[in-house]
# Entry
Amino acid sequence: MVVAACNEADALPLLHPRIQAALAGLHDLRTRVLYVDDGSCDGTWPVLQDIAASDPQVALLRLSRNFGKEAALTAGLDLCTQGAAMILDADGQDPPELIPEFVARWREGWDDVYGTRVGREGDGWMRRGAAALFYRLIGRLSHTPVPADTGDYRLLSPRAPRRRWHACASGTGS
# Structure
């Protein structure tokens, strides 16, 4: 699992136990969580160090400055050399509780399993409209279908071509 974090010191202590709980149900898989600190200027790095010190499944990568979420995810994906890679945002918007469902679809043979938002509660009309416009525009410009309301919350199989991993990591934002 790759989790990109930038200035998420407050969110990470709440998110990590949820990730742990979701992964605990996958006892037949060897799992690892790679947190990528994308140049945070708050207390994110010390929080990540504490999490890594208490959880042997956690690995850390610290970028020298803020490169943006897509670059941070790509850096993390480049370090994934075995098995499938799950991508999750550190802000807690994507529910880690759904990870077992992603894994179930992967076990069925899917190479790119992505989450789709079914609602945008809490988002104002302007943000909802901008998201709708973004997906409509990307859908028209892309040679690859991009379903509406998908973001980086996805699982990528090792069977997915490597260039696809980069396209997924850098092609959409949430």
